[in-house]
Amino acid sequence: MGDEFRLRVVFYKTETGKEPVREWLKSLPREDRKIIGEDIKTVQFGWPLGMPLIRKLESDLWEIRSELPHHRIARTLFTVEDGIMVLLHGFIKKAQRTPKRDLTLAQSRAAKLRR
Fold this sequence. Notes:
Blueprint (H helix, E strand, L loop, with lengths): L7 E4 L8 H8 L2 H17 L7 E5 L2 E8 L3 E10 L2 E10 L6 H14 L2
Parallel strand pairs: 1-5
Antiparallel strand pairs: 2-3, 3-4, 4-5
């Protein structure tokens, strides 16, 4: 029973068919990809989760908080729609707060999904 995932994971696709989060992940070192992938899997199988791994940003937007080597932090922003976890945006965090630009990008991608 414990092997069932609660959310199906998909990458957000742009109108041109690009998958920004998949491309971002591919650009990262292998070790970083593995950590972020494990964190996404933890959410997929354990949803709903809270801190420290997941933080709700607003009503339909959450971030996965991944701790990377060398005191680096990654954030993967996602929404959940009908049992599907849509990975909207990912970035390496450089400041204490989630940058407005990154939040706005994730919000606009989530809004496009709901049209």
